[in-house]
């Protein structure tokens, strides 16, 4: 994997666009380089919510979710320095590149 964030849209959304500071609701599956799943909102049976673009999630998500629209599906290939870097996090070893398959379910902004 390169040192750059790679964004691949498998399905374009047609709903509200993800912007900095929005509360987003997603379903996702996170994989390591070997393809093994380290986390999945599907397996928990509950979507994941976070505020995006404000440093509350890994940089790869803060950067990679911008512009995505509700109803869209996107894969993020996140190099280690935009993920957890030199820190280990559960099943994720230090300096691990990560891949996320993400479906954007909802975007809420202060205007809502």
From TrEMBL:
| Ranges of residues in domain PPIase FKBP-type | 21-108
Q: Name one Pfam family in it.
A: FKBP_C
> What SUPFAM superfamilies does the record tag this protein with?
FKBP-like
* Database matches in InterPro entries: PPIase_dom_sf, PPIase_FKBP_dom
Q: Which reaction does it catalyse?
A: [protein]-peptidylproline (omega=180) = [protein]-peptidylproline (omega=0)
Q: Which PROSITE patterns match?
A: FKBP_PPIASE
The question of whether Zinc is a record keyword is answered with no
Task: Print the keywords alphabetically.
Answer: Isomerase, Rotamase
Name the coiled-coil region(s): none
What's the protein called, per UniProt?
Answer: peptidylprolyl isomerase
Question: Which source organism does the UniProt entry give?
Answer: marine sediment metagenome
């Amino acid at each position: 994997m390169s040192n750059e964030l790679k964004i691949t849209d498998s399905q374009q959304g047609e709903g509200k666009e993800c912007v900095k500071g929005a509360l987003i609701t997603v379903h996702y599956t996170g994989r390591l380089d070997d393809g093994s799943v380290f986390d999945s909102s599907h397996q928990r049976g509950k979507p994941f919510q976070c505020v995006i673009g404000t440093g509350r999630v890994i940089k790869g998500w803060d950067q990679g979710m911008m512009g995505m629209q509700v109803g869209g599906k996107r894969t993020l290939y996140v190099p280690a320095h935009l993920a957890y870097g030199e820190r280990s996090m559960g099943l994720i070893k230090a300096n691990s590149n990560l891949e996320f398959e993400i479906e954007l379910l909802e975007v809420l902004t202060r205007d809502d």
